[in-house]
Amino acid sequence: MAEEKGTFELPLNGKLITGEDPATIGNNFQTLKNFRYTNTYPKPVGGMTKINTTALTTYLKPRAGHHFKKTYPTAENHVLVQANNTAETAAQVLQNTTAIPSAGDFSGTALWTDSSGAGNAKFSDAPDGNVAYCNGVDACIWSGTEGRIAKFINFDPNETFKKDYSAIMQNALTDTNNIATLTRCASPADANTLALYHLDDNLNDAVGPGNHNLTAVGGAALSATKYKFGIKSLYLDGVGDWCTAADHADFYDSDGRWTKDFWVYVPSAGQINAIYTLYSQATTADPATDWMRIYLSAPNASSARSVHLSIVAASSEVVLVSTSGPGMIAADTWAHIEVGSADIGGGLYGYYIFINGYLYQAISDAQAPANYNSLVFIGAFHDGKDTTLPFKGYIDEIRLSNITRHTSYFTPQVTAYSGVQTNFYIAATRPLKGFKIYMGSTVNTTAAVMSVFHNVNSVWTAVTTLSDGTATTGGTKSLGQTGWVTFDSTVATSDIKIIDGLMLYWYWVAVSGCDDALTVYQTTVDMPFQLIKDLWDGELRNTIGFYIYDNGTYNDYTVNVFENSYNTANDATFLTVGALTATTDFIVAGYLEHITGLLVNIMGGTYNATANTILDVQYSSNGITWTSVTGLQDGTSVNGISFSKSGFITWDAVAPINEFTRTISSEVPLYYYKLVFSANLSGTIKLYYVAGIPSPLDMKNYHYSFLAKDRLWLLRENTARCSNIYTADVWNGADSKTYPFGDKTKLTGGCTLYSTLGSNIYSTLLFFKQDAMFGMTGIAPIDFTKYEINITDGLVAPNTLQTCMTLIGGQSRMVATWQGTKGYYMFDNRSPIPIHDDIKNFFDPRASDTINVAMIHKSYSFIDEENWELHWKFASGSSTTLNREFVFDLIRGKWSEIERPSAKKLQVGFKVVDTNGNSYTYGTIDTGYMLRLEYGQTFDTTAITSTFKTADIALHKGSVTKVTGVRQLKLIAEAKTSTTNNININHYVDTDSTASDTFTLSPLRSGKRLINAKKSLDGKAHGIFHSFKLDLTTSDETEGFKPMFLTGYYDFIREDY
Questions:
Q1: Helix, strand or coil, per DSSP, at residue 853
Q2: What confidence tier does 923 reach under pLDDT thresholds 50, 70, 90?
Q3: Exposed e or buried b for every residue in 540-552, given b needs 16+ CB within 10 A?
Q4: Is 691 left (phi over 0), alpha (psi -120 to 50) or beta?
Q5: CB atoms < 10 A from the CB of 1, how many?
């Protein structure tokens, strides 16, 4: 038979197919590495270049990454990674604030350290300029360096003014309508202050002419060991130490209008007496018959101490006021004690004891103190003859006044009683570690000192390690310039507080000695990276059960207080409480949720008038017995009379694990709260509305988050919970809801997908399990509707779930993509589409390169927007790292592979955006580096090898019965200008793994755009199937190997029978 010759032309516009035998894939590639597609030929991928030149250490293996950027209240840029240690047993969140896409190192200070048991994390954007972070144990939130302030209120503690500048402080405008002018308060050492002892440098009276100075007795001395204000306090050893002041007309208390207040600190160590005296004075006599004393007592020396006022006349105790229960002084902490008296008319005097501003006891009596003539004793009891029961501990800031300072809850002074002072509240939705004050044109020029306090166990407590960046002149003139005020993080210590009906984290800023009328135009806050908090949504909760326990019977009045309105002609719209007997009769209110406060509305003109009526609120600590709450603030109290006006009653939230439901009169179990009064109520009180303030929810153990419909969504077990709209800090009420999906198997991820229907744009929420997929439509919780999407394979690797644009089929559409157990999928709001068919071998458990089942849930995907590509990282075979990187072309629907150096395999990738809106792609590797992808001529100094291998092709008319031999190969490719490397070409025959022909071609052609390179072969390598593998390694070319055409000549050798 005459020998036949033929030509072949192998198109290079095919696709990579690894899921079929190379002899069956036609004009496609069995290998395509480090190339990306065009419509006609493959072109090389770009390199990658380090962002951080200093490697991460200890925590060097990122497992999640996110670019967090914001423009309000200030522009910020943070690249965040969850970085694991080498053994992947611990992780931290680290940040890099280098401008995108410039090179720069990570911060040396971690934003967050994962709790024990945490897994690979998920970052997501969150409402109101936040970023969320979930790792299966911790559910965190962060606002960046400068977050939005919630409240800014300039106020006077004595309530002469209160100016809410919150709206001004939330913007950066500086016009006259957006400038806050701070009003200064007068000195708290007012004309009614008869004696004031700062106890810093001496025992002198700070306001008197000197005749009230204290005299030390025994070893009484000033100490710098403990102090509330200033630099020292008075220390007494409990044996023979006390102080005295000479009697004076200023100490006359017989008119019944006086107040004595102190700060005290009782150490737990070395206590020797059960009774400690703070203040006493008597009539000098033998035997002693008349005296007054204020003292602390406890069952034993080491117990918490109650506070007492005792007045003795003619050797008989005629007045005794005592606190108990929550009204106790704990050891090893500063407490403010105020004891006062008021002339309440009718020949009666009211006596009040406050601890940290809370009224814990009040009584009325016709007896007033006598006009005593002995020395005034501080720290010991003097009965007119003998001195006993000395105090052991520290006393600071003693003030003696000739008026009744308070009769209901107040906020104790957080600084010493001296000089002028500017006060303002800063409130935030989460605890702080600092704030920034932007000063206007009027700044302070006078020596002034700033103090900052936060709420700890219902006590205003000074922050620690305060640094005032607003101070000028060597730090002596606070509010002298724009600057940061920083302090140790208060995340672990701050408690929420309700002020003006707003549940927030409040900070009291007091600046002593500054000028008046300073101007501020903006304030921002630094809320550290921390666990997500839940704040009250502002909507009161309906009372589900409301009973009055009277004479041994529970009477149900739920319907009477259910709505916030009344009709005097309809007694079903209100209730008359009646003259409840003190301590034995009470009110109980029940709710479906844990409650931390009540709103009580009372019909005008029907208020309680019983003097010294103190409220105690109790909860069920075991489902049976009642326990008093702490931090009670009774907003219905006036002059020590509870229920004397409408108002809020609030208390410290009880940990959910410590509070239990119970039943009343065999009704359904509810969280009940018992209201008990210290005195009989007036019989005319008409209540018409009682409602609850919910306690914060526990927001832990969420493993996934995403932003959708202006809400943050958190996944835990088989449930998804949405935040209230526009916030990531409110998770209760009608605008937040938890949705269960299917059985108890865990949700693995979620996203939102935008679609168009006609001219309308709408979004669908998607939720996944490993073997299921669900959709949700609607605008808000009131109309959210769930449905199941028919699918047998769900999302197994949470960090592969991506949404992106695709042009497959020539139509632009938004799709969701993800890796399941059995394949890789795309969804466009119609039906899931498998896109893994060309690489299905990786999902075939029989294949040697199948996904490592032990690592299948750790796969990672990211989108390269600039190149319209989806990158999929997974562990193949027995690898325990993500060693394979396949790329899906979102325009052409084709896969390719990127093969990076073995020590530089990407484990994470994510999009970043510069200030102009240009997007880039960053990736991380396990040697502690983050890199910019598609940038540079090398894979981080390692040359890039671009390789393709054709299918095993039957050259002679596609016939598998014709044996042929290749005589010549011709390559047309883009000419290179710099590389010294040659193009390597291997010719394989009949699927042999060893090349039959191996040769090289030069990619250089001076003055030419293309090379037209030919290589003659001897044609002796005979076979039916032929394949060609070409590669070029470059490290100095802007673009590497760019093959365009591959053709050749062959000889027909014989028929194969």
A1: helix
A2: very high
A3: bbebbbbbbbbee
A4: beta
A5: 7
* Cβ atoms 1012, 1003 nearer than 8 A: no
pTM above 0.85, yes or no: yes
709: how many CB neighbours lie within 10 A of its CB?
Answer: 16
Please compute Rg for the chain using Cα positions: 39
CA distance 342 to 423: 28
Locate 1024 and state its tokens: 């039916």
- Could you give the C-alpha distances from 118 to 88, 300, 566, in angstroms and in order? 10, 46, 53
Work out the burial of residue 303: count CB atoms within 10 Å of its CB; fewer than 13 is exposed, 13-18 middle, 19 or more buried. middle
DSSP string, 844-882: -TTSTTSB-GGGGGG-EEEEETTTTEEEEEE-BTT-SS-
CA-to-CA dists, residue 743 to 137, 341, 738, angstroms: 22, 64, 15
pLDDT value of residue 757: 66
Contact 102, 912 (CB under 8 A): no
DSSP category for residue 854: G
The tens digit of pLDDT for each residue in 44-103 reads 999 999 999 999 999 999 999 999 999 999 999 999 999 999 999 999 999 999 999 999
The residue assigned the tokens 């299966």 is 136
Whether residue 1 is predicted with pLDDT greater than 50 in this model: the reply is: no
C-alpha dihedral, 933 to 937 to 938 to 944, nearest 10°: 110
β-pairing, 502-512 vs 813-819, is: unpaired
Residue 729 and residue 593: Cα distance in Å, rounded? 18
Beta bridge partners of 185: 421
User: What is the b/e burial string over 495-522, where b = at least 16 CB atoms within 10 angstroms of the residue's CB?
Assistant: bbbbbeebbbbbbbbbbbbbbeebbbbb
Write the single-letter amino acid at 565: S
CA distances from 350 to 381, 640, 645 (A): 23, 8, 19
β-partners of residue 714 are: 705, 721
Quick check: helix, strand or coil at residue 367? coil
Lowest mean pLDDT among 1-5, 221-225, 833-837: 1-5
Q: Using CA atoms, how far apart are residues 611 and 296, in angstroms rounded to an integer?
A: 25
Nearest to 692 by CA among 500, 535, 498, 539: 539
The residues with which 94 forms a beta bridge, in sequence order, are 81
Q: How many Cβ atoms from other residues are within 10 Å of residue 725's Cβ?
A: 15
CA–CA–CA angle 950, 954, 957 (5° rounding)? 125
Secondary structure (3-state) at 820 = coil
Model pLDDT for residues 321-331, shown as the tens digit of each residue: 999 877 788 88
Burial (CB count within 10 angstroms: exposed 0-12, middle 13-18, buried 19+), residue 553? exposed
Contact status, residue 595 vs residue 541, Cβ threshold 8 Å: yes
Three-state secondary structure call for residue 683: coil
CA 366 vs CA 113, 344, 371, 868: distances in Å: 62, 10, 15, 87
Q: For residue 896, what are the β-bridge partners?
A: 887
The DSSP code for 167 is: H
User: How does pLDDT run across 422-481, given as a tens digit for each residue?
Assistant: 999 999 999 999 999 999 999 999 999 999 999 998 889 999 999 999 999 999 999 999
Inform me whether the pLDDT recorded for 975 exceeds 50. yes
- pLDDT tens figures, 828-859: 988 899 999 999 999 999 999 999 999 999 99
Tokens of 725: 């709209």
Give the residue-averaged pLDDT of 639-654.
92
Residue 124 has a pLDDT of 98
Average pLDDT of the residues in 579-591: 93
What is the phi/psi pair of residue 319, to 5°?
-135, 130
The three-state secondary structure class of 548 is: strand
- pLDDT exceeds 60 at position 258: yes
- Residue 802's pLDDT is 98
**Other residues' Cβ atoms within 10 Å of the Cβ of residue 267:** 15
With 90 as the cut, is the pLDDT of residue 282 above it? yes
Distance separating alpha carbons of residues 1047 and 484, to the nearest angstrom: 69
pLDDT at 940: 98
